Known about the structure:
Low-confidence stretches of chain B: none
Distance between the termini of chain A: 39 Å
Largest interface: A-B, 21 and 21 residues
Low-confidence stretches of chain A: none
Number of strands of chain A: 11
Distance between the termini of chain B: 36 Å
Helix content of chain A: under 10%
Largest sheet of chain A: 7 strands, mixed
Mean pLDDT of chain A: 98
Oligomer: heterodimer
Structural class of chain B: mainly beta
Order of helices and strands of chain B: EEEEEEEEEEE
Order of helices and strands of chain A: EEEEEEEEEEE
Strand content of chain B: over 45%
Amino acid sequence: xxxxxxxxxxxxxxxxxxxxxxxxxxxxxxxxxxxxxxxxxxxxxxxxxxxxxxxxxxxxxxxxxxxxxxxxxxxxxxxxxxxxxxxxxxxxxxxxxxxxxxxxxxxxxxxxxxxx
Amino acid sequence: xxxxxxxxxxxxxxxxxxxxxxxxxxxxxxxxxxxxxxxxxxxxxxxxxxxxxxxxxxxxxxxxxxxxxxxxxxxxxxxxxxxxxxxxxxxxxxxxxxxxxxxxxxx
Lengths: 116, 107
């Protein structure tokens, strides 16, 4: 069974950084592109970015390119999202997902709240 | 960026009815279009990819169609468990973009 479990969320002060993790199981993690999508409370879905199998290609939505960094550790079957200079607009549920362009498996999501 | 305009924003239908949700792309996306269902408090679930391919395990009452800039999701014989918000998403061009969602309720 494919399983994606995000962790690392919580309450963070404006301007600070936070790193999310996504533990993958039930499939060969090395063989898949992975991505991050977020959803602000009561709002729609926003694509953050994606990373290919060997980390040689990483794509971001332009507005987040200078704030967020996606990485992966294939030995640990884990995807990461490093977020910096966080603001209230970054308050959202963050989902990791397996991607072919579309997303066939999603994690349960992790909440990040940016507030003083 | 490719803008995905989804309609209607909300929809109320009776059990057993057929509903259609539309998604209009701001440019040709060559059928690189997916549909997702998101139930309250849950993560999105893939229903349709490549505009008309049904994801494994998704009931056959869901179907997708369209080409170019116009796409639709059809739900036949509406069931109570179909209450959810539905999103379209294009993956033809970066950045990947989603429609704003259609909230489906039972009348």
